[in-house]
Amino acid sequence: MKKHIKPLPDPELRAILRAADDIVAEGGRTLLSKILKGSKERKLLELGLDRNPSYGYYKDLTLEQIMDKVDHTIRTGFLEREVNGKYPTIIFTSRGWAIEKERRAEEFVQEWDCWLENNVIPLNMEYLKGRNQGLIFLFLYKILYSRNKKFIPFLTLWERIDYKKVQVEIRNVIQALKKCDNMNDAEWKQLLSERAQSLIIRSINPIFLECQSCGRNFIFDEENPEYYGNEGLSFPNECPSCLEEHLLHR
Ligand SMILES: [Zn+2]
C-alpha cells in the first residue's frame, strides 16, 4: 500500500470489491465500472452480472467518475491489474480478498438464516462444493461462532457431498455445536481458538498495514479470530507494539 492515500469509505470499498468478485481474472476495470453503473449492455446481462448485489451501486455517477473510484481502489491496494492473455484484468490483492472473503462468508450465513426462518430445505449443498477454501472455511468458522445448533441439519447435508478435507472440518463443527451447551465460556473460547487455527487460512502474500501511530508497516494477523466475530472484517489501526503500549497507559 502506498502511503498517505486514504481508501474509499468502507461501504463504497465493499461495494466495489463485491462487484469485482464476479469478474475476477476475467474482466477489466471498464466492465467492473459498468456493473457499478448498472449498465444494460447486452454482454453484461448475458453474463448475469445484473444479479450482482453491487449492480447499479453508483447509478447516479458517470462511468468516468466510477472509473476513478475503481482506480482509487487499485491505488490503495485492494485490487490490482493482471494481464491475462491480451487484456488487463482485475484481481484481488490479499488485502482486498480478506475483506471480500469475509463478506461472502457472511452472505452464506445470512442465506442459511433466511432458509431456516422460512422453513426452506435446500435440495442440495452442491453450490458450496469446490469453492475457494479460505471462503468456505471462514463460513464454517462463522457458523461455529454463532454457537447455534439450528445449523446442524444443513451442516449434515453439506457434509455428505463435499470433499474429504472439508468433510473433516464440517464434522468438527457439528461436534462442537453439539456439545457447546455443556461448555462454560472459557472452554468455548478455547475451542473457538483451536478451530480458528484450521478454519482461518492465511493468504499466500501477507497483508501489510501501516500503523497510524508510529507509521511503521506491520503484518495483519489474519488468524486472530477477533477480527472476524463482528460485522465485517476490521483491520487494526495500530501495530501490535503501539497497541500494547496504549493498553498499558490506559
Ligand atoms: Zn505502531
Automatic annotation (TrEMBL):
InterPro entries: RQC_domain, WH-like_DNA-bd_sf, WH_DNA-bd_sf. Residues 11-112 form the RQC domain. One of its GO terms (molecular function) is 3'-5' DNA helicase activity. It comes from the Bacteria. Coiled coil: none annotated. One of its GO terms (biological process) is DNA replication. Pfam families: RQC (PF09382). NCBIfam families: RQC_minor_1 (NF041107). This is RQC domain-containing protein. It comes from Fontibacillus solani.
